Amino acid sequence: MESVLLRPLPSAGLGRRGSPRGPRRVGAVVGFGERSRCWRGVAVAAASWMEEAGVAVLEEGVRRNPAVSDSYRPQGMPRPNATGLEAQARVCTGPEQTRPLGEEQAMRVLDTILRSAMGELKDEPVSSAQLGAFFAGMTIRANSFPEATQWSEGERRAMSLFWPRLINVLPPEVKFIADPEGTIMGANGLTGPRYVGQSTAEMRLVGALREVLAGGHLGYEEVQCVLKDVLPIELANENSKMVSEALLSAFLIGQRMNRETDRELKGYCLAFDDELGPTPVADVKSLTHYGEPYDGNTRFFRSTLFVAAVRACYGEACLLHGVEWMPPKGGITEGQMLKFMGANTHLSPLQAKTLLEDESTGFAYLNLQEACPPLSSIIGIREHIKKRPPLATSEKVQQFVRARGRESMVAGFYHVGYEDPLLMLMRRRTVHAGLVVKGEEGALSMTTKERSVHASKGLPVNHCSGFRTPNSINFSEADGISREGFKVIVNAQELGFESTETPRTDRSVLKNLELGLAALGGEKGPTYDRIVLNAAMVDHLLGCTGAEDIQSALERAREAIDSGKALSRLMNYIKITHKVS
């Protein structure tokens, strides 16, 4: 089976093969045509600063178009089989969301798996991770899902036809996942009860999987032990993996299908807190940790990078974290935008601490590769799983740098049921304030667009909930327990904003930068309004000093942009990331 592992990326400043490359024309990064002289000024300044810093930036244009988010998918990472992925999208989801396969589709996917296992699909094999996810979904549905989302008659007929042939070509770990207790496949399911794994790490994983595949749950310590045993995924040698990708993908998607408990989510969230040693502590009065969905935006303007530059102007330091590219959406991320502008996006937490403390920047971005290598190691497996695992929730509530002063967390969400778990994880982090936002695309960006009477069911966009420590209470005395909660739907029109359509970017990193830099350059319009709204509302809802009155908070954000300070901080950041030690 084809591995979806990647070897570690080269260090910052080196080409993909580890050799220095010549500088590329930075003006292309922010040279957005003829709409504004401000942009051309930014381009010249960025180019000058990077030349001064002696930066060697990758020449991207030869092999890909860095203006589009899809191009940031890591090179050399095998793509999943499309037929298998389509089936996984239907069967590897929740008890109510699962859509059983019809007989024709079940026949097609099982035939594809058979031919792949027999070595007939050299160009697009079904990976081990896909096999683990697909059969985990089928097993959990058979064991614990309600009748409506258990196997359809078509799936039963297809499996009865193909399983006697699959049993002869599938690896033992996949046969275990498909029938762990020998109760699903009848006489052809005898491998599962006897299977124990091939290493110490796999033995613990197999034991946990038996509970997960039966629809059960694990304790906090069990989840942490499994994750620490199996991550980071590494190659023991060229032909042998230390842990089966099929087992790991079955574990990850199985936990999500079973609707992970608070204890399980805490296990995912806190498992690698000590991975790099003691957490650096920044000497700042206030620090906000931003938890954007790591898989980015595919349709609408993503504002958080620009909001961070604005809030830094008045002492609200901001720590962003994420990856360049993440499935399933593979959309625009802060890492892509910063890299496209020429910043060093591979900083250590200690270097991020320095940037947070720097009075000319006041914000920082951390790539998961440097901040938490174990979690970064399974990006490829996550693409082959198709659906989001529990890590998609817990990774938004990380604390890679601490602060001597006040700490807050902000995270975006979309699906019903994850609002309270996110707040629970934030409370577990013992921060002073926490905020979850249902922004556009499930990200953090609140909109100024008036809600339509035909809006979809569920929580509306701009729904916010959270907690904060009352100003009258000393946090150290309260020991992180005395907090006041709130829920609010932000109505931008009540705050004086005109209702406008959200600017579309449609996976264009260049377009997102064009919009954001123009707004920071003072160009009024929908993008400008969204940056102001999101900066001020976060200040206000988190209870930040000077933002008790929302109109004052809005004016403060506008002043940070109109004075040019926010744009200056963003440009300073690009320069200083290459000098910080």
Could you outline the blueprint of secondary structure elements for this entry?
Layout: H1 27-30, H2 37-53, H3 82-91, H4 103-117, H5 128-144, H6 153-166, H7 172-178, H8 191-194, H9 200-213, H10 220-230, E1 235-237, E2 240-241, H11 245-257, H12 262-270, E3 281-282, E4 286-291, H13 304-312, E5 317-322, H14 334-341, H15 349-357, E6 363-367, H16 368-371, H17 373-376, H18 379-385, H19 391-394, E7 402-403, E8 406-412, H20 419-428, E9 433-438, E10 463-468, H21 475-478, E11 484-489, H22 509-520, H23 526-542, H24 550-562, H25 565-576
Parallel strand pairs: 3-7, 4-5, 4-8, 5-6, 8-9
Antiparallel strand pairs: 1-2, 9-10, 10-11
Helix pairs in contact: 2-25, 3-5, 4-6, 5-7, 5-11, 5-18, 9-10, 9-11, 10-12, 11-18, 12-20, 13-23, 13-25, 23-24
